[in-house]
User: Fold this.
Amino acid sequence: MKFTPFCGIGQAERRYDMYTFNHFNFNVTDLDRSLKFYKEALGLEPVRRKEAEDGSYVIVFLGDRKTTFRLELTWLRDHPQKYDLGECEFHLALKAPDYEAAYAKHKEMGCICFENPAMGIYFITDPDGYWIEIIP
Assistant:
């Protein structure tokens, strides 16, 4: 089998079924605070919840009511300290239905952590320090 380093659209050497995005995980230190933030800032709501019988973890999947992609929030009882996010060089991006209104709301909430007017984007930070890019 010939393997090419880039599996882009249009390569007909061999066809593979495409994987699809399902969810992305953020570990959180205060689940209630995070749920409130994601509802207020982005309109995301819980669509599924899983709790360990021994209470060691709670997982909540948030949805946007438009796609099947989920943001998984995981709370771990034995990890009360802040998570080390390194240099925060990763992020999740969401498209705003009304970019100007979203910007005004996030500015009022005080959660904008970086703006790039040249690119027409900005980032907000959640209660645990995860960066979320807002695009028009």
Remarks:
- Residues 23-78+88-135 form a domain with the 2,3-Dihydroxybiphenyl 1,2-Dioxygenase; domain 1 fold (CATH 3.10.180.10).
- Helices lie at 31-42, 99-109.
- DSSP finds two helices and eight strands in the chain.
- The mean pLDDT is 91.
